[in-house]
Amino acid sequence: MARKKIALIGSGMIGGTLAHVAAREELGDVVLFDIAEGLPQGKALDLAESTPVYNSSVSLKGANAYEDIAGADVCIVTAGVPRKPGMSRDDLLGINLKVMKAVGEGIKAHAPNAFVICITNPLDAMVWALQQFSGLPANKVVGMAGVLDSSRFAYFLSEKTGVSVADIHAWTLAGHGDSMVPMVRHSTVGGLPLPQLVKQGWMTQEELDAIVDRTRKGGGEIVALLKTGSAYYAPAESAIAMAKSYLKDQKRVLPAAAFCQGEYGVDGLYVGVPTLIGAEGAEKIVEFDFNDAEQEMFNTSVEAVGGLVDACKDIDSSL
Ligand code: TXD
After folding, report:
1. Which residue range or ranges hold the Lactate/malate dehydrogenase N-terminal domain (predicted)?
2. Each residue's pLDDT tens digit, 246-271
3. Cβ of 226 below 6 Å from ligand 1
């Protein structure tokens, strides 16, 4: 069987880390693409020079032309610009929307059969725009945010309880932003739903509330520490988990931004929902039972996503 091909659109901090992990895990040949000249070539060469050390047989190549992503099985998109001082959220939206247009057209022309994972912020709106611009089927385009947010939630729960992360299943759903919804009743530590942990004295309600709050602000906590950028190790690992589930048809159920068509009462938007990812892409959305409070938080988050998508439509009349 021929090696798989993984195209990384954007070769910045997350793109470079994605290439490193993909090479170490021998997921396939890697093409690092970027508009910056030299950056993807330099990272690809540095990484290629490391493959003899750990005996990885994949190739790594840097590229500035979309022709080089031809036939990719997976495209992971991190291309875009981060928010700079003085720039509004709308300014960022407009700039990254243009980037999604270029990337979407590049994928449509050269890798129309790929499974596409978008990471660029604002995530839920950018993955929607990328699907529109690429014209790929909605089940082949997903967004990564929930695996990361849920992993942060799981890590904080592990730190508090002393239970291995292997025995924690944490879920964070809805949009990727301050209104994300950590699912307290559906998340478990050693099989126990979180409210039971509180009842049994593993932690107080206040401590659990603080973990939920820290999860919501997890991205900002890293930005404040790094000062020069945002998180990249955990985001890259999260996208690799999604790519692997597709490439190996693992059929894992992962929290992903998937295109909802009636699920959870959402129609025509991408939001974070438990998604079965296999060889057909996003194969099925798993529907948790929500109580009224959970549904209300979910709806609030979905409204925020809808607002961003409307802003995209206002900026680009072709949408
Ligand atoms: O959970 C999540 N979804 C996220 C999202 C978690 C963390 C970070 N998240 C977002 O990912 C972040 O807000 C950014 O929008 C992306 C990528 O983050 P990264 O840290 O990798 O950003 P960099 O280092 O700035 O890299 C972006 C690269 C950079 O090399 C640019 O030259 C390139 O994107 N770029 C482009 N590449 C191709 N085509 C175009 N048009 C383009 N424009 C910029």
Report:
1. 5-143
2. 999 999 999 999 999 999 999 999 99
3. no
Q: According to CATH, what is the number of the domain 5-144?
A: 3.40.50.720
CA of 144 to the centre of ligand 1 (A): 13
120 annotated binding-site participant: yes
Residue of minimum CA distance from atom 14 in ligand 1: 120
Domain range list for the chain? 5-144, 146-313
CA distance 67 to 79: 17
Q: According to CATH, what is the number of the domain 146-313?
A: 3.90.110.10
pTM, two decimal places? 0.98
Q: Please give the backbone phi and psi of residue 278, each rounded to the nearest 5 degrees, phi first.
A: -145, -160
176 in catalytic set: yes
Sheet holding 252-261, edge to edge: 60-63, 29-33, 5-9, 74-77, 115-118, 141-143, 252-261, 267-278, 281-285
Mutate to test the pocket of ligand 1, among 9, 119, 147, 271 (most ligand atoms within 8 A of CB): 119
**Each residue's pLDDT tens digit, 266-299:** 999 999 999 999 999 999 999 999 999 999 999 9
Six-digit token string for 118 = 């978008």
